[in-house]
Specification:
By secondary structure, the chain is mainly β. 3% of the residues lie in helices and 49% in strands. It has a domain of 166 residues: Jelly Rolls. Strands 1, 3, 4, 5, 6, 8, 13, 14, 15 and 17 form a ten-stranded mixed β-sheet that branches. Strands 2-7-16-9-10-11-12 form a seven-stranded antiparallel β-sheet.
């Protein structure tokens, strides 16, 4: 396989605007989240590259009617199949909810969950050192408690960088932690639907990096832990 897209975060300053879009807003994002996502630059930036690391910082501060600020980034590129590696060190503390995930490129046309969602990594600080990986589709998603999900204990995810990956092929997606397979889901497995309602993963997807706070999954927050930073060393896409 060859690298077809990457960000190594070599240049200090804002995230590369040719590769990423910073989303703004603080409406809870359907989960009751507490943060406002900003696109600020300079010393108050919630997303910035420093010392060859992308740093997404969650702060307690009043902003646009919300009590906290953070950042959420969409990749401008989309991909269909291949291996995706993200080296990251996670924040800690109750309420923190960092994620590395993907949505189908047709999201604006068909909406969620019909577009499909691939959760390469989710971590909630109320259960420290437990990693969640999931797939969501029109027929199998968390709103109806039918999404495909796997949790695993991974000590030290907030102390060191670890590699979160997927190996995405036409009829299956494997999830890996530091190169070790965590789980693999196959199209039609266990009698599941094989149409786009059950397997919308034969189309391009884009990546999202974000650090949320509170909400239905993040849980009751503990402001004593703030500020917290989600660090990403690199993102690499291979085909």
């Amino acid at each position: 396989m060859n690298v077809i897209w990457s960000d190594e975060f070599r240049k200090d300053g804002p995230p590369d605007p040719e590769k990423w879009t910073l989303q703004t807003g603080g409406h809870g994002f359907g989960n009751g989240e507490l943060q406002f996502y900003t696109d600020r630059a300079g010393s108050g930036a919630n997303a910035a590259v420093k010392d060859e690391k992308l740093r997404i910082t969650l702060r307690k501060e009043a902003f646009q009617g919300n009590g906290y600020t953070s950042a959420r980034m969409f990749s401008k590129a989309s991909w269909q199949y291949g291996r995706i590696d993200v080296s990251a060190k996670l924040p800690r503390g109750a309420g923190t909810w960092p994620a590395i995930w993907m949505l189908g490129e047709n999201r604006k046309e068909v909406g969620w969950p019909q577009c499909g969602e691939i959760d390469i990594m989710e971590h909630v600080g109320r259960t420290q050192d437990v990693i969640h990986v999931s797939l969501h589709t029109g027929l199998y998603n968390h709103k109806i408690k039918k999404h495909l999900t796997q949790v695993s204990a991974r000590p030290g995810v907030s102390e060191a960088f670890h590699l979160y990956s997927i190996d995405w092929r036409k009829d299956e997606i494997a999830f890996l932690f530091d190169g070790e397979e965590v789980t693999r889901w196959v199209k039609g497995q266990d009698g599941r639907d094989t149409g786009t309602g059950g397997w919308p993963f034969n189309q391009p997807f884009f990546m999202i990096l974000n650090l949320a706070y509170g909400g239905g999954f993040g849980g009751v927050p503990d402001d004593a832990c703030l500020p917290q930073t989600f660090e990403i060393e690199y993102v690499r896409v291979y085909q």
